[in-house]
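We emphasize that the prediction below concerns an isolated chain of 412 residues; any contacts that depend on oligomerization or on bound cofactors are therefore not represented. The input was used exactly as deposited, without trimming of termini.
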Amino acid sequence: MATLSQFDVIALRREFPILHQQVNGKPLAFLDSAASSQKPQRVIETLEDYYRRYNANVHRGVYRLSEEATFAYERARGKLARLINASHQREVIFVRNTTEAINLVAYSWGSANIRAGDRILLTMMEHHSNIVPWQLLAQRTGAELVYLPFDGQGRLVLDDLDRLLDERVKLVAFTHQSNVFGTINPVEPIVARARTVGARVLLDAAQSVPHMPVDVQALGVDFLAFSGHKMCGPTGIGVLWGRRELLNAMPPFLGGGSMIDLVELDHSTFAAAPTRFEAGTPAIGEAIALGEAADYLQEVGLTAIHHYEQELTAYALERLAEVPGLTVYGPPAGADRGGAVSFSLEGVHPHDVAAILDQEGVAVRAGHHCTQPLHRVLGVPATTRASFYLYNLPEEIDRLVAALHKARHIFA
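Result of the prediction step, given as a token string:
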């Protein structure tokens, strides 16, 4: 089983400039990669190189700088297609982030295909980005939202699929990996069940593409969305993948330059995907740097990254169990558990926990993590979350646990 050794991780850490600093006089332990990952030097340099050496608009010039920018931009599209094993790079649409990708599907595919009385099946563990766009679509169309629950260990209750997934359901949208529980959801059985009623499937892969191999053809989904900033890439760039036949049948999301075929005074015709969905000047440098991030992750090895993160998570769950009054949410260590661990410390607000951890140089997230419905089911307004990536070390988990003991002592 391929994984990363401690020597591998120590070497990898040297490639991330931001990790070589102190916070409040302590070495930085960055445990918030589920929110946004850090960037290796080569990705930073790729973005800088674009602005320093060949900054120009794409698809619009026959001069050398524009042609070089266009080549690099489209080459990045190909890199992202290979990362997720898309059948063609024209199935890859550059967007700002996962949120925009889901909104694109909701407004374009949803407005054309969802009608009053139809249902959209979501889950109770979804990020707001995979709830609010569908709420807005339901308000516009008269459709209904239904939700698949999760059990006491943060796993989806698949037995409820037979009750909830009927012919009225036109779309199933769910997260590949929960940003709170760390649960890696079983995609294949949900897709298979959706196919029996003719429903389309959208997968929120913001927490999976950066951490494990993701093959859209093997998964069998219709749409998949992820963000660059969570996978060692820049902010402001992400990807929507969709089946080519679906994308070309969808109306545009935004109108303007670049996405057209022919413009008359009273009507326009539109280019094929992906151009149809990339109106205006795109985030060129960011897309090119995202392609570099995809190369980086594949060179390190996504299987190795995934296995290493599971080892870290198992160690974290073992150490966190030593902290009195700590409640950890999500499944136990295992094949369906990724590297996000959310918890509550009895008698201490999550924001206070995070503030004390920060004094020890440990960066974690506190709040509802854009999952208010999930937290209502748990009966808590917020949790503290530690999340792991390829550059984290077991000793950082030790520091996390030591800081939690300190927080407990302060508020005892």
